């Protein structure tokens, strides 16, 4: 998307005006923002929080795998074929199948 120079200048001017003259503080007659969360949403939030906490507290399977590979590399027992490396790299490029 290309923004013409005049529109860019208008956007910059609007930003500068807002920065120089910020919106006034909420007046006494205005209501505060409010949000209501359903029981299902609250339950999901609690479950999500518990799962995230469990993930942070437990060592991940990825860390265990990395430690295992590191040990194999250090002992000279890590062996992988060039084809496997190439295929993994191609999958990383989001190609659909092995070549």
Please provide a written account of the structure.
With 99 residues, the chain is an all-alpha fold. The chain has a domain at 44-99. It is 62% helix and 0% strand. The protein has helices spanning 5-20, 39-57, 61-75, 82-92. It is flat.
Approximate strand percentage? under 5%
Parts with pLDDT < 50 across at least 5 consecutive residues: none
Largest sheet: none
Number of strands: 0
DSSP helix fraction = 55-70%
Give me the number of helical elements: 4
Distance between the termini: 36 Å
- H/E element sequence: HHHH
Oligomer: single chain
Which word captures the global form? Answer: flat
Quick structural summary:
The protein is 62% helix and 0% strand. The protein is mostly helical and 99 residues long.
Topology:
Blueprint: H1 5-20, H2 39-57, H3 61-75, H4 82-92
Keywords for this entry:
mainly alpha
